[in-house]
Amino acid sequence: MKKAVVLTVFLFAILFVSLVSAQNETVEEKAYSCLQNKVEDKCDNLQIEEQSFSLLASAYNSGIKSECIDALKEKSSNNECWPSSGCKIKDTSLALLALNYAKTDTDKIEKWLLSKNKTSPLEWYLEIDSSTATSCTLTYDTSSKSISISEDKKISGSPGSCFELAYDSYWLKIEPTCLRKNITVSCNKDFISTLLFKKTGSNVWHVSSNVESSSSGGKTQHTVNAFCFSTGSDCNYEDNLWAVLALKQSGNDVSAYTSYLIAMAEDNDKYFPSSILYYLTSSDEYLNKILTLQKTEGYWDLGEKGKFYDTALALLALTESQAEGNAKSWLGENQGNDGCWNSGNIRDTAFLLWAAYPKAAAAEITPNMCQDYNYYCLSQGECDQVNGSVLNNFDCSGLEVCCDKPAKEKTCTEEGGIICPTGDVCSLSTTTTTDTENCCLGTCNPETLECELAGYNCRASCLDTEETTTDSCNSGDVCCKAKPVGKSYWWLYVLIILIILVVLGIIFRNKLRILLFKLRGGFKTSGVTKTFPKFPPPPTGQPSFRRMIPQMFPPARPVQPARKPFSKPVSKTDKELEETLKKLREMSK
Question: How far is CA 87 from CA 75, 145, 249, 257, 529, in A?
């Protein structure tokens, strides 16, 4: 009996420890565990998008990596494009991204994608500028054309068949037939020249990053190489986002394809282009848009793919920022009980793990991690900005590349922030820049204290139930917030105690039954009062009679109970119970 009690308590102790351990798992650990349960030994049953994101998230796991590589290749056409039933740009791009991340040979995939280029449907312009009036020569197709630029910057002359005066004669529009031609510009005064482009019908011009300058008599050269990817007559924007990202990540020059993504972004907000464009260019314009689109709860939702998918897209671009921290807090609060997100959605869970909690892909040999060798894990765009070289022999997590130079230090303005006046507080996060330690990435709000903005209280001193925070108050006051209440497991303790009591009650049920009789007064030896039923009163004027009906009992006859051979002896507890029942019968007479 004692062994049974000890065993029961031991089992419930193990249950308690396992439940507490499950509570202490991190968001990342729970999500990876959930994804493994959904993918392991099942990768061949997933769709291409699910397989690709699962491989991106689980390439560190050699078992899942091998399984998903084989399953993904099974859906290809000759291991160069996906699906085998009809190759598509986006599916092939996702496969390239996943297989390259898993460190497999992707040459055939890259060649197939690059072969599907066509001239992008954009308008291109040439701008020539000088501080004074100047005469210039345009050379292309071995012929030269002369133009003049006046003091007011307007162009006159005959630029030839490849150009047309445009934008009130301030720029030269390049004809579509001359887009791939090499154009040389030479002027008799110091000048600069650059290319501009825009979507047909739009009033938004974009300036090429290739701005060239020359002294008097010198030359600048420009060639328009602008393409997009397509397997048909038109280019699909979402297809091109993933194609450019995948080719960039696999080491290809994609500068000829980014102009299409930039110009067409205004009509494709639902695909959240700012995220991938910021990764590709590191332009503050796209960073500011990402931060602006973040919801107050911490997630992103552009409507097309859902908030979990869009949040993963945003986190591809953001690293070590307050916006990223807010997003991860939201992910922790909205994680399913099984550890996955969006009701166990494999695509979204894998995408979020790769974007928010990336792990370095497994390799046959131990990878050389970039930061272990004092190099820098940056986005490709950040490395390009500082003219750094990508070190392909060193690894970084996620989409970052190993760069031999650190990221460019920026001013608050370059970060897209503002410096708040004294007394104002920032509505969002602050960051350290070259010119300030408090660069506000939101708006400056007067009157509302930072402490109150965070939902806390400014006091001369905090209450016993509060603790101080670093949020600002008026001079002399401190910011106070309620002390965190630890997770309570009282309900688990109560449950365990109740179950133990039930078990003990079953084991000692006979003794409990005797105790119950004692509590009810079953063993009183004196003062026993018998009660009799009451009869209705007799009719008025007649004497009352009460007949006493003697109780009739059959003569007692001793009965010798039959005893079975080898029967179990009557225990002391059973004897006590029998004596108790006997006394009760006598008292009821």
Answer: 10, 46, 21, 20, 98
Structure tokens at 41: 């030994």
**Do 270 and 298 fall within a single domain?**
yes
The whole-angstrom separation of Cα 508 and Cα 432 is 70
The model carries a pTM of 0.65
DSSP summary character for residue 371: G
Side-chain half-sphere exposure of 494, counting CA atoms within 13 A:
4
Query: If you ran DSSP here, which 8-state letter would residue 178 be given?
Result: G
Q: What is the mean pLDDT of the chain?
A: 82
CATH number, domain with residue 85: 1.50.10.20
Contact 416, 428 (CB under 8 A): no
Q: What pLDDT, on the 0 to 100 scale, is given for residue 264? A: 96
Percent of the chain surpassing pLDDT 70: 77
**Count of domains observed in the chain:** 4
Average pLDDT in the 443-447 region? Answer: 69
Range of the domain at 380: 370-403
Domain boundary among 482, 508, 535: 482
Q: Are 387 and 296 contained in the same domain?
A: no
**CA 158 – CA 505 distance, rounded (Å):** 106
280-288: Cβ within 8 A, 24+ apart: 280/244, 280/245, 280/248, 280/254, 280/380, 280/381, 281/381, 282/379, 282/381, 282/382, 282/384, 282/385, 283/381, 284/410, 284/414, 284/415, 284/416, 285/416, 286/317, 287/317, 287/415, 287/416, 288/416
